[in-house]
Design brief:
Layout: H1 2-20, H2 24-44, H3 47-76, H4 78-83, H5 89-112, H6 124-149, H7 155-175, H8 184-192, H9 194-205, H10 215-245
């Protein structure tokens, strides 16, 4: 068991140390969603409605920045040395994703401190479900970022793909308007968007009223999406190792 968890823990720690040396990332990741939330919320007098969407946006930005390290590791040769080591590939993938997800989770929890501005007051018993949902969303978005970054050689190209994919996913996840107000093909897109369920899960833990999809459905879809991305990333790492060996 140690041969599996030790590499994962080492890579997890490496991501945290790297972040500690780049503290300016914290300001950039939190400030952008905060400004967007305040502008939209104050402009439409709906700070509470958009709070959870801005929180997910914070986590998403952090996942984007953190998974860039995969491209940097490839340039520095660290990725190749990691792949040729005897450690299980899934263990190394798990360590990288957990490290980046932990950073996204920490920044999401910091954003929660602004909940009183949205008229939300979390009771002691409500904190654990909320921070748990934030971590699951962080893990899922980091897994998605990992899968895309694994195939990329350019940070500019990675940013372009992530913005093209993730921003529309966020916009039609219920962050700007709820699923119940969507019509026609837009409602269908929101239904098949995994981020819709992630945001819905967060809204349920925040105990917001009239949330669809349901809490259990949102949890199952988000969990399945996160685990599926972990398995996909593990398969991609194994394929890369096979090609390198050949």
């Amino acid at each position: 068991m140690s041969s599996f968890f030790l590499p994962a823990a080492t890579l997890w720690q490496r991501e945290l140390i790297r972040f500690w040396r780049q503290k300016s990332r914290l300001l950039g990741v939190i400030a952008s969603p905060l400004v967007i939330w305040l502008l939209i919320g104050y402009g439409s007098n709906t700070l509470g409605r958009f709070f959870s969407g801005a929180l997910v946006l914070t986590v998403m930005f952090s996942a984007i920045f953190s998974t860039i390290s995969i491209i940097e590791d490839r340039r520095e040769g660290f990725l190749l040395s990691m792949l040729v080591s005897p450690a299980p590939r899934t263990s190394m993938v798990l360590g990288k994703i957990l490290g980046a997800a932990t950073l996204a989770w920490i920044q999401g929890v910091i954003f929660l401190a602004f909940a009183p501005l949205a008229g939300m007051s979390l009771q002691a018993g409500e904190v654990l479900p909320v921070v748990g949902a934030v971590f699951l969303i962080s893990f899922t978005l980091t897994g998605l970022g990992f899968a895309i970054a694994w195939k990329m050689d350019s940070t500019a190209g990675f940013h372009a793909i992530m913005n093209l994919l993730l921003m529309p996913m966020w916009m039609v996840s219920g962050a700007l308007f709820p699923l119940s107000e969507a019509r026609g093909w837009m409602k269908l897109i929101m239904r098949v968007n995994p981020l819709t369920y992630a945001l819905s899960l967060l809204n349920h833990t925040l105990r917001l009223p009239n949330i669809t999809p349901g809490g259990a459905e949102s949890l199952l879809v988000t969990l399945a999406f996160g685990l599926g991305l972990l398995l996909l990333c593990g398969m991609m790492a194994k394929q890369k190792t096979t090609r390198s060996a050949a």
